[in-house]
Design a protein that fits this description.
With 232 residues, the protein is mainly alpha-helical. It contains 9 helices and 4 strands, in the order αααααααααββββ. The longest helix has 22 residues, at 78-99.
């Protein structure tokens, strides 16, 4: 899981632990400056030994798992694995510089490291970018390779030629009003439609073509005789 044998792993442990202690002297595990006591390995630390810390980081660099998976492999949660990864990556970079295994960033440093001239070192460098083009006629475009039959591709399409229907704002509002039932309509009420219908008022009874007057209240005199409001 680390691409290192036991014989290759053991020589890296001492310089790695020295770089770790040097980093933890001014800094805390959460990345803040250390202002109180010095760093000490706790009894409940998930990575109590230098070998465990180096193995933790080499597995992460080699396999690139999710942080939650990396934490489960070493008995910790994702919140604990996250700061350990960031701290130990810095420690591993410093360890590689101490051992002389860090990648060089300039041609001069590479020549000094290999003990050769810069001309010989430049012959070993593989360019990562295309050389700049000189001013001249443009080169012919290379013939396009046939498309793979296993990958389906489609040509880019332009704008749709179907005419779009333009609606005014008043027409849209009117359409929405017709489609939305009113809250005060009879259809939205819980009662039946029959309860919303207007019932005709019964006509007053008639006697031989003469319409009887409606019922009128009567007044009661002091002697218990009823007097009609219209008189007798």
């Amino acid at each position: 899981m680390t691409s290192l044998t036991v014989d290759e792993f053991q020589p890296v442990v001492p310089p790695f632990e020295a770089a770790f202690q040097s980093h933890m002297a001014p800094w805390r595990l959460d990345g803040k400056p250390r202002t109180a006591r010095r760093y000490t390995t706790d009894q409940n630390c998930p990575l109590p030994t230098p070998e465990a810390r180096l193995l933790f980081l080499l597995v992460y660099v080699k396999t690139s798992p999710l942080q939650v998976v990396q934490g489960r492999l070493f008995g910790m949660g994702q919140s604990q694995a996250h700061p350990w990864m960031h701290v130990l990556l810095v420690v591993l970079r410093a360890t590689r510089r101490t051992l002389g295994d860090a990648p060089t960033r300039s041609l001069t440093a590479l020549a000094n490291r290999l003990g050769v001239t810069e001309a010989d070192a430049s012959a070993l460098v593989v360019p990562t970018e295309d050389p700049p083009r000189t001013s001249g006629p443009p080169a012919a475009a290379p013939a396009s390779a046939p498309a793979s039959p296993l990958v389906g591709t489609t040509e880019p399409r332009g704008a749709s030629s179907v005419p779009r229907i333009q609606l005014s704002r008043r027409a849209v509002i009117a359409a929405r009003t017709r489609a939305t039932p009113s809250k005060t309509s009879c259809g939205s009420m819980r009662h039946s439609r029959a309860s919303c219908a207007v019932r005709p008022r019964p006509a007053a009874p008639t006697i031989s073509g003469w319409r009887m007057p409606p019922h009128t209240p009567c007044l009661q005199a002091a002697d218990d005789s009823r007097i009609s409001a219209f008189g007798r």
